[in-house]
Design brief:
This protein is an alpha/beta fold. The protein contains twelve helices and 14 strands. It is globular, with a radius of gyration of 21 Å. It comes from Agaribacillus aureus.
Length: about 400
């Protein structure tokens, strides 16, 4: 059996089997995740109807590291679909600054995304929300049935959605877990009309196979070239994918390749200075014609620079892009199907995953465990969670000052 065009025996020798298998398995995994959400539909629908009936409710989308970027992708979609004030705040920010996000008198739905459910910050964010907010609700989307977050599902204010077994990645880099939880989050915003999304999920699964079958070899060749930096650009929900793409290449290469992300418009305001002859730029293009105008302008501006980098464009439909003079065009459909940008996010991260995988091998690393020093681990280690203390005052209680310090080893 092959994964990403590599024989399993070779992948095992190179410490790359899990990463290759998990990247390759995503399109099928998305369809399994859809069926899992169909199973959960009655439970989630009833839970959210109760929660969203609460006046003045706020929604916080959270996670640590890659899981936090799911919230960045979904923030607009959640707010649009629910009509509730929605923010994406990482658990790493919630834990260090809880009073800036949790208020005693503000009802809150905390939506937690977590591969393992054992990240110290994810568990601490749950505990802080419980301690501070009078009316707190939790929706937990996780890949590990044995994780700490999965075990709190029996609480009446909590619903836990467990992803398919194969979403619980064995490799260090989150790939299938990220896209599976992301899709589950998108489908949560459509929970009362899931049947209408079946064809869309099937389509993005087909798009994923187009990328895997049609562009893996080209991305492998690109990974063997002598670049030192990669910039990922995206607009709206695709900016969150640019952020995850940046992290994926950087962690798979153990920091040897420095990456940056931004929006198309934001990149003009100073960050363009990072471009030199050793830079790759990945453009994650929007399907919205209005947004696309701004993106095209940025591409043309960069092309006018004498330091022209190697440019890759990721599109749903790439008709009439000759004017952009891209070095590699990754178009997934010959037709203008126009799935929404938020659904397109699920498959648009695959090129970065594949590039990072092959660059890791090119650098002599082991993609399943690319960190030579061990400083990056599958579940973060060595984080001390301190008792939360805040000066007394209106709406700012002192919490558990004498509680024992938790040390996660």
């Amino acid at each position: 059996m092959d994964y990403l065009g590599e024989k399993v025996s070779e992948l095992e020798l190179k410490g790359a089997r899990h990463t290759a298998e998990e990247i390759s398995g995503q399109p099928k995994l998305w369809e399994e995740a859809f069926e899992r959400m169909v199973f959960y539909q009655p439970q989630v629908s009833d839970f959210l109807k109760t929660v969203f009936a609460v006046p003045n409710l706020q929604v916080i989308l959270t996670g640590a590291g890659t899981s936090a970027f799911i919230g960045e992708v979904l923030q607009r979609e959640f707010q649009k679909s629910t009509g509730k004030s929605t923010r994406a705040i990482s658990t790493t920010d919630l834990v260090s600054h809880p009073a800036e996000s949790f208020q005693k008198s503000t009802p809150t739905l905390l939506v937690s995304f977590a591969r393992s459910g054992d990240s110290p910050e994810s568990v601490a964010a749950f505990d802080l929300a419980e301690a501070i907010v009078d009316r707190i609700f939790h929706l937990i989307i996780t890949c590990n049935p044995d994780g700490k977050l999965a075990q709190v599902g029996k609480k009446s204010n909590t619903t836990v959605l467990l992803m398919p077994e194969k979403a619980n990645d064995k490799a260090l880099a989150m790939t299938g877990s990220f896209t599976c939880m992301l899709l589950a989050g998108i489908l949560t915003t459509q929970i009362d009309n899931l049947s209408e999304q079946r064809q869309t999920v099937k389509k993005i699964s087909e798009y994923g196979m187009v990328i895997l079958n049609g562009f893996t070899e080209k991305l492998k060749e690109l990974a063997a070239s002598d670049f030192k930096r990669v910039v990922f650009l995206g607009s709206g929900p695709l900016k969150g994918i640019a952020e995850e793409s940046q992290l994926k290449v950087q962690e798979l290469t153990d920091g040897a390749i420095i990456c940056k992300h931004d929006s198309f418009l934001g990149f003009r305001h100073g960050p363009k200075a990072v471009i030199d002859e050793s830079t790759l730029i990945f453009y994650l293009f929007s399907n919205d014609p209005y947004v696309y105008q701004y993106e095209v302008d940025l591409v043309k501006s960069i092309r006018s620079n004498p330091k022209v980098p190697y440019c890759v464009g990721v599109f749903e439909h790439s008709e009439s892009v000759e004017e952009l003079h891209l070095d590699l065009t990754i178009g997934v459909s010959p037709l203008k199907n126009n799935v929404s940008d938020v659904f397109f996010t699920v498959c648009s991260v695959l090129p970065a995953q594949i590039l990072g995988f092959y660059k890791s091998l090119h650098l002599g690393l082991r993609p399943d465990i690319p960190s030579k020093s061990g400083s990056i681990t599958r579940v973060v280690q060595g984080v001390t969670i301190y008792p939360y203390q805040k000066p007394t005052g209106r709406n700012t209680p002192v919490l558990n000052q004498n509680a024992a310090i938790k040390k996660f080893k």
